[in-house]
Design goal:
This protein has 272 residues and is of the alpha/beta class. Helices cover 32% and strands 26% of the residues. The N and C termini lie far apart (47 Å).
């Protein structure tokens, strides 16, 4: 049984201050198929880093290496180091569950627990992580406020989470991740299935939480990358070769003054 961490005397009044992450020479395989080649990337604390590039270049795989979800795939392997506040999350003796408490994940498709109420969905992340909070109502409100959903659901917290709209479900999933007070939040194309209004709400949420949580987002929407991120990393994979970073820099530089012609071609819609 997972031991409970007692937070009774320190009920959250806000969200955790984030830490920084860095990848050092990260390569990844699925079986014998190499999908990432020596990726080096610093993701500064309280900064939004956008991972851009065409499909199949390893962006989502890289994202999953950051909180040790890559290793859940049978036959998957990894080389290099992933640092969180200077400590390698793959260091022997460090449990993957400990990393996933500190590095949350929001997926492309909203995945609330449909039979659970909105309240239960938010608190489920704490239960799964083995964290006890002394003020459950406050935790629910703070998390939903941070996800930009509180005002829309405050009068129906006991309604099923699965009854919400797609955009609301995605923000509920963000609230569930934030309830654990992560230092980093990974987002894998969180708006790809949403309408423009819901997309705007998610982007507002990213802007709100990025003052306290490091965000790394995979997106195919170039306008979105420019709106939400301060740093962008362009991934590319040549035919029959693994993905790698071609260029990384401030989002303004990557989009307006790219140093590599392949970056310029991609951000200007000439391929991908």
């Amino acid at each position: 049984m997972t031991a409970l961490v007692d937070l009774t005397d320190s009920a959250p009044t806000g969200l955790a201050i984030s830490g920084g992450m860095a990848a050092e020479n990260v390569s990844a395989w699925f079986g014998t198929h190499k999908v990432l080649e020596r990726v080096n990337l610093v993701m500064p604390p309280r900064t939004v880093t956008a991972l851009i590039g065409p499909s199949g270049c390893g962006k989502s795989t890289f994202l999953r290496t950051l909180n040790r979800m890559h290793e859940l795939v049978p036959g998957a392997s990894l080389a290099g180091r992933v640092l969180l506040d200077g400590t390698d999350v793959y260091e022997p003796g460090l449990k993957a569950t400990h990393t996933r408490k500190r590095v949350g994940m929001v997926f492309q498709k909203p995945n609330p627990f449909p039979a659970m109420s909105i309240r239960e969905n938010v608190l489920s992340g704490l239960k799964l992580a083995g964290i006890r909070t002394g003020n459950r109502d406050q935790t629910v409100q703070v998390s939903l406020e941070a996800a930009g959903l509180w005002r829309e659901v405050m009068d129906r917290l006991d309604s099923p989470g699965g009854a919400l709209s797609g955009g609301q479900q995605q923000r509920l999933c963000i609230a569930r991740s934030l309830a654990v007070q992560p230092e980093v939040l990974l987002m894998d194309e969180p708006c790809s299935a949403l309408d423009p209004t819901s997309t705007r709400r998610i982007e507002e949420t990213i802007a709100e939480i990025s003052s306290r949580v490091t965000v790394v987002i995979v997106t195919h929407n170039m306008q979105q990358a420019q709106r939400v991120s301060q740093q962008s990393a362009f991934f590319l994979a040549a035919e029959n070769e693994p993905g790698r970073i071609v260029e990384v820099g401030t989002t303004g530089d990557v989009f307006n003054n790219p140093q590599d012609q392949r970056t310029a071609d991609y951000v200007n819609g000439r391929f991908g």
